[in-house]
């Protein structure tokens, strides 16, 4: 990779190995960085303003050192001297211009360093990671509150270009310059494209709406990777800018939310940049390598690795109606176990006035029974061999709650103007609360602990924690540390998860947490991540599953509430098939098929899809728990059949070294599967079938039997099992010494 720098940004960006320029010449120039600052007038509301560099000029190592000394005599942002010496590129700016036209004494120096520096080198090797760094010194009388850096130049790839974007569990956006300009993305709630200055811009914040801090733009032959290696995991925006189909360039950028006060300086964390061969899997591996240097994976209870299904009930009390009472919990559990083999009952709508009502009053609703009735219901489930998880909303307070004026206004997240942030769900309106406020975190942790100690819960689910938009909070009354740091949203939730899990496991060593959707720094601490089957945007779940294979995705497989029978049936089959291929835990609310199903056949026949998939999944659960999705899927399948290859995550002694091929064959067609390994390896093919039953009788989960067939394919192919779901366990090739020892 080679490059050149112009007035404000990189002007050429070459892939030497592929012999092509990656920067689109028709890209409108935008600066490599920009700042935003908060101005608090003597009267009126505070507001955020944009500031752009007046001039961004290349400098040599000596000039860079001199600039840093002048900018920051105290040396608070001084990098190691060899870092500046080895940089391939250094650019500096001595002043910024505000949107009002005034010039601000804000200083900046950015540099790009290779991972293996050599004197005089100007080219990065294929797949080599470079690190952008930035130093900012604030000599103005305003507080800098946002830093947009680095903004890559307008990239353009040939052919079938794809943007991999970590919206929830992942998006793979084909032809992103054109796609992001469509009405479909312009109309997307909270994560959509907006128009800015004639461009199409999409920006989502981490951690929550964005699950990871990396993006990749590739066309299969090669691509560009950009990631934030921020050890503090600050609130971070992941930004994409494009000119749309008429001017199809793509810029990638990051935004950090942090205070740089007057007279202070800031040194950024590294931003990794790499041009690589192949597709996004390379990028996912690089990000995970860095992440593992910062965040350990918390060990989860061993028995949860065998769990294949969660059976939720959001209908204890909902929309003013009582559907179930606490005394019904044993019968609800019995049905879930009979139909799905579930041990895991998930309870929502149990709180005062029910689901999405009067949060955060997490006391039992008295129309459902007394607190002791709730405890007895949980105890009966546990005595029957199951366990219960309770729902708690981690984000909201109902504006109609009697506690809003006292607790709600005190804990409310506030924008730069001091106003609260409100969101509506159904007929109710809520205020967003600040997770960086210790008092709000204590409220959430106390109720989580009480559900375990007082009612016997094993799991606590914090709704919206990894799903809704994370936001900066400008309140100075919340106990943020420091008080005026507005970018601590993520750290607040990390502290909550650490605190509450520590408390739960003092009472129950196998207690666990679940969250809505996923976020790497959160999901490393919890067992389950509920990825919902809503609008079809963030549904490339394999992006997150590949990057973090040990994080349990809990995928919804219940029928979607659509009015088109064919569409509902197609989506239902697709959701079940995807959950199976991803080795996900299934999420199905008993009774929803009877309530919603309008597709072909009966609800009972649709239930058989879930049961068959769960039966096969259970048979290979231990192998799945020790495996990861393979980089490539190197096999050929008949049309309409899907497959996913899983490989062992580690080579630890005692761990299975079998590879696992999962097959989804919705039409049960015949044919052959080409195998991605030499002939002669043993394959065990597992499929499930239901026992005989009377016409119209519902199949019970314990009526399904898994059969096994063993073969040693000699021609590089094997017969395709004529079942909807199959698991093929592929024995490892034996080393030569084993072959000799075995005769």
TrEMBL record:
<dbReference type="InterPro" id="IPR017853">
    <property type="entry name" value="GH"/>
</dbReference>
<dbReference type="InterPro" id="IPR046226">
    <property type="entry name" value="DUF6259"/>
</dbReference>
<dbReference type="Pfam" id="PF19773">
    <property type="entry name" value="DUF6259"/>
</dbReference>
<protein>
    <recommendedName>
        <fullName>DUF6259 domain-containing protein</fullName>
    </recommendedName>
</protein>
<dbReference type="InterPro" id="IPR013785">
    <property type="entry name" value="Aldolase_TIM"/>
</dbReference>
<feature type="domain" description="DUF6259">
    <location>
        <begin position="272"/>
        <end position="522"/>
    </location>
</feature>
């Amino acid at each position: 990779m080679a490059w050149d720098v112009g007035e404000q940004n990189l002007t050429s960006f070459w892939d030497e190995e592929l012999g092509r320029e990656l920067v689109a010449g028709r890209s409108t120039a935008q600066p490599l960085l920009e700042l935003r600052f908060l101005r608090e007038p003597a009267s009126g509301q505070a507001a955020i303003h944009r500031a752009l560099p007046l001039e961004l000029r290349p400098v040599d190592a000596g000039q860079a050192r001199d600039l840093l000394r002048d900018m920051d005599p105290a040396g608070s942002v001084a990098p190691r001297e060899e870092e500046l010496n080895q940089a391939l590129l250094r650019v500096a700016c001595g002043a910024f211009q505000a949107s009002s036209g005034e010039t601000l004494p804000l200083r900046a120096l950015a540099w790009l360093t290779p991972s293996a520096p050599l004197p005089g080198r100007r080219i990065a090797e294929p797949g080599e990671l470079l690190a952008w760094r930035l130093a900012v010194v604030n000599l103005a009388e305003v507080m800098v509150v946002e830093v947009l850096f680095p903004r890559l130049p307008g990239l353009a790839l040939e052919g079938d270009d794809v943007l991999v974007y970590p919206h929830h569990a992942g998006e793979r956006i084909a032809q992103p310059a054109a796609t992001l300009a469509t009405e479909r993305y312009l109309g997307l709630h909270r994560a959509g494209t907006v128009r800015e200055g004639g461009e199409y811009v999409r920006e989502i914040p981490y951690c929550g709406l964005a699950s990871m801090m990396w993006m990749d733009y590739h066309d299969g032959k090669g691509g560009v990777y950009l990631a934030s290696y921020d050890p503090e995991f600050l609130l971070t925006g992941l930004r994409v800018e494009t000119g749309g189909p008429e001017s199809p360039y793509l810029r990638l950028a990051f935004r950090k939310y942090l205070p740089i006060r007057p007279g202070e300086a800031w040194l950024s964390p590294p931003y990794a940049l790499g041009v690589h061969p192949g597709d996004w899997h390379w990028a996912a591996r690089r990000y995970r390598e860095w992440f593992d240097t910062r965040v350990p994976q918390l060990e989860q209870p061993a028995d949860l690795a065998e769990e294949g299904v969660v059976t939720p009930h959001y209908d204890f009390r909902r929309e003013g109606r009582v559907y179930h009472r606490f005394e019904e919990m044993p019968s609800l559990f019995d049905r879930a176990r009979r139909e799905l083999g579930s041990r895991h009952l998930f309870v929502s709508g149990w709180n005062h006035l029910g689901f999405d009502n009067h949060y955060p009053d997490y006391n039992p609703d008295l129309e459902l029974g007394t607190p002791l009735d709730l405890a007895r219901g949980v105890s009966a489930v546990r005595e029957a061999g199951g366990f219960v998880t309770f729902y708690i909303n981690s984000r909201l307070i109902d504006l109609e709650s009697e506690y809003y004026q006292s607790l709600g206004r005190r804990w409310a997240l506030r924008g730069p103007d001091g106003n609260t942030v409100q969101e509506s769900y159904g007929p109710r309106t809520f205020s967003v609360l600040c997770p960086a406020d210790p008092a709000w975190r204590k409220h959430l942790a106390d109720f989580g602990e009480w559900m375990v100690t007082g009612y016997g819960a094993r799991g606590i689910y914090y709704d919206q924690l990894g799903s809704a938009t994370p936001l900066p909070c400008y309140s100075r009354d919340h106990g943020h540390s420091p008080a005026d740091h507005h970018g601590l949203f993520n750290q607040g939730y990390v502290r909550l998860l650490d605190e509450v899990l520590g408390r739960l496991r003092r009472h129950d060593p196998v207690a666990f947490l679940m969250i809505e959707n996923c976020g790497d720094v959160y999901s490393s601490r919890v067992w389950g991540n509920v990825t919902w089957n809503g609008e079809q945007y963030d549904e490339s779940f394999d992006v997150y599953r590949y990057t973090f294979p040990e994080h349990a995705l809990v995928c919804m497989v219940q029928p979607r509430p659509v009015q088109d029978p064919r569409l509902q049936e197609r989506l239902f089959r697709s959701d079940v098939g995807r959950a199976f291929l991803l080795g996900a835990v299934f999420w199905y609310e008993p009774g929803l098929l009877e309530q919603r199903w309008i597709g072909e056949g009966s609800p009972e026949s649709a239930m058989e899809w879930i049961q068959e998939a769960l039966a096969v999944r259970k048979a290979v659960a231990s192998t799945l728990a020790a495996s990861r999705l393979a980089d490539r899927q190197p096999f050929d399948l008949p049309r309409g059949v899907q497959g996913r290859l899983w490989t062992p995550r580690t080579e630890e002694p005692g761990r299975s070294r079998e590879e696992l091929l999962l097959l989804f064959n919705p039409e049960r067609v015949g044919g052959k599967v080409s195998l991605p390994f030499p002939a002669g390896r043993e394959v065990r093919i597992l499929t499930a079938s239901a026992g005989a039953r009377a016409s119209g009788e519902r199949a019970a989960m314990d009526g399904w039997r898994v059969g096994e067939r063993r073969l040693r394919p000699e021609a590089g192919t094997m017969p395709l099992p004529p079942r909807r779901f199959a698991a093929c366990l592929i024995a490892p090739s034996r080393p030569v010494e084993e072959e000799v020892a075995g005769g």
